[in-house]
Amino acid sequence: MVAPPVAAVVPPPPLPPTQEGNPEHAHMLANVWMNAQKLAEMVKKEGLVYKKGKFSAIEEAQLSAAIEHYRVTKGLTQDQLNELIFSKERGRDTFWQEITSALHLRPIIAVYHHVRRNRHPLSQQGKWMETEDELLIGAVAQHGQQWERVSHIVGRMAGDCRDRWRNHLEDRATRRNGTWLKEEEEELTRIVTEMTVEQGRDIDSEVFWGIVSQRMGGKRGRQQCRIKWTDTLSSQMKNSGERPRWSQLDAYILVHKVDSLNVRDDTEIDWKLLPDENWNVWSAHALQRRWLTMKRSIKGHEEMSHAEIMEILKTKKSHVPGSSTGRKKKNKVTSAEAVVDMDDGDGNMVPVAGPSSVALTSTVVV
């Protein structure tokens, strides 16, 4: 009798570093199911640090490796794995705890929703058709915002139905499109300020856009409000009411801040960490868009690694703009890396990239 083939053993993913200064928090993130409100409370009361936002390409690879390792070691078929992922009894075994432990500082609830969304059989169906919109409107009229029930009628994921409804269809009769009126901008600024600054919250990252839209009477959707704020009004508010202009100095600072992070891929970047007290006009969303614009300006960037792209941009942005003009003007430049003054050979002191592990404020002569 021929022995059955032995399945290749997938090595376990490398363990991530524990949460700096508090390994109990890292264990908590991977094992305790906390919603957004509870996580926010832990941040304020316990100093909890965790990652939010889009999963990086490296995190995706770590998750895939962890899931496959779990499947092989448990002897599961792909169908059995899918049954486990989409089971309504999420605590019936240690699957979610084990794969979350393969990442660094991601809450288990975020991993749960991310994996279920990415592996859902109805995911990535493309552009919504008018007939689907009509189905969605009818399903919401029948079941309200019970998205799982709505999903079965429309044939789209529950989360996609929710987002389509909130971002495009809800209050469609009263919603405006196109250029914002000055009165609308003032109303949005007032509402966001009341919800953040007056309550000690961050004006860029702690805004509940669905509530903002409701307070505007549904005239603008949550997505419209978010984009208008992050792309325009946030930076204008931080700049004493004047609309700021992106400068070469901003580009220089951005490149060297990104370089100082020492990431393997720019999908790992938490853009909210880049602004500081001396360079805080631009929102995280605006900085990410500026970075993508600079990266895409490099011919053949699609085939390059992040390190290669970084070297090209550092060469382009190796000197502070205006440093060779001979004019003396003091500008404060705060970077996430040390800035070291060097003689450029013409008697001018200009900053070059120093050790990336130190953050300081340096006076640059330009």
TrEMBL record:
Residues 120-169, 172-233 form the Myb-like domain. Residues 1-22 are annotated as: Disordered. One of its GO terms (cellular component) is nucleus. CDD domains: SANT. It holds the Pfam family Myb_DNA-binding. The keyword Iron-sulfur does not apply. Keywords: DNA-binding, Nucleus. InterPro entries: DMTF1_DNA-bind_reg, Homeodomain-like_sf, Myb_dom, SANT/Myb. It comes from the Eukaryota. One of its GO terms (molecular function) is DNA-binding transcription factor activity. Residues 126-173 form the HTH myb-type domain. Its main location: nucleus. It is found in: Nucleus. PANTHER family: CYCLIN-D-BINDING MYB-LIKE TRANSCRIPTION FACTOR 1 (PTHR46380). This is Homeodomain-like protein. The lineage of its organism: Eukaryota, Fungi, Dikarya, Basidiomycota, Agaricomycotina.
